[in-house]
Write a structure and sequence with these properties.
The protein is mainly α. Helix content is 75%, strand content 0%.
């Protein structure tokens, strides 16, 4: 017999995800794409730059977890909720891979991860309350913007940093698939001000997370 989750159940699930994402050590279900790449010695400036980029990507995955979990918590349709939770699981892989790479680069995640998570969860829940079509439309726009910044990072990474590059390449392919799946599931196109506001918030996050 399949148990129907109550609002309290969903709240507790969301709280557990928040604690694991921000303070825990998420485990990837798939192998780290960078594991097969040789580790090279980067000079100090290259190491700091690569770490800053991977910290931004780690924050992006913290935000993605929060967005999807927030959206799933209020999704009205079970198929939409399942879609969001499946995407969140793949984002957990990305989160673990980015954390691995930060450790290899002798660096750390953002000190503001609790703030990033809380803000993104609130945005996800608000988007979900508009209805499942808007919920999925938010997924499409989020993933398209993430793809764009991953392209920027793939160009900006130190040429010798094959491990980070391999991780970001798989992440980019996953994000494109998430967007395509959301479109096929009935995503609505967001009104013009929303993507612009999302892009502005993303620029602030990237600027701060590169250093903190």
């Amino acid at each position: 017999m399949v148990r129907t989750l109550t609002p309290l159940d969903r709240f507790l699930d969301s709280a557990q995800n928040a604690l694991e994402t921000v303070f825990g050590a998420p485990r990837a279900e798939r192998p780290n794409p960078g594991a097969g790449e040789p580790e090279v010695v980067l000079d100090e400036a290259e190491r700091r730059h690569a770490a800053g980029l991977m910290r931004i990507n780690h924050v992006g995955e913290v935000c993605a977890q929060a967005l999807y979990i927030g959206q799933a918590a209020v999704a009205r349709d079970e198929a939409t909720r399942a879609h969001l939770l499946a995407a969140a699981q793949e984002e957990t892989d990305h989160l673990a891979w980015c954390a691995d790479r930060l450790r290899e680069l002798d660096s750390r995640p953002s000190l503001l991860n609790p703030l990033w998570y809380a803000g993104s969860y609130a945005i996800g829940a608000l988007a979900g309350l508009r209805g499942d079509g808007w919920n999925l439309g938010f997924v499409v726009e989020t993933e398209r913007q993430v793809e764009a910044h991953l392209d920027e990072h793939l160009v900006s990474l130190p040429p010798a940093d094959g491990r980070s590059r391999a991780i970001l390449g798989v992440m980019k392919a996953d994000e494109a698939r998430h967007a395509a799946n959301a479109e096929q599931a009935g995503a609505r196109v967001l009104p013009p001000p929303v993507p612009a506001l999302m892009a502005a918030a993303s620029r602030v996050m990237k600027t701060v997370a590169y250093r903190l």
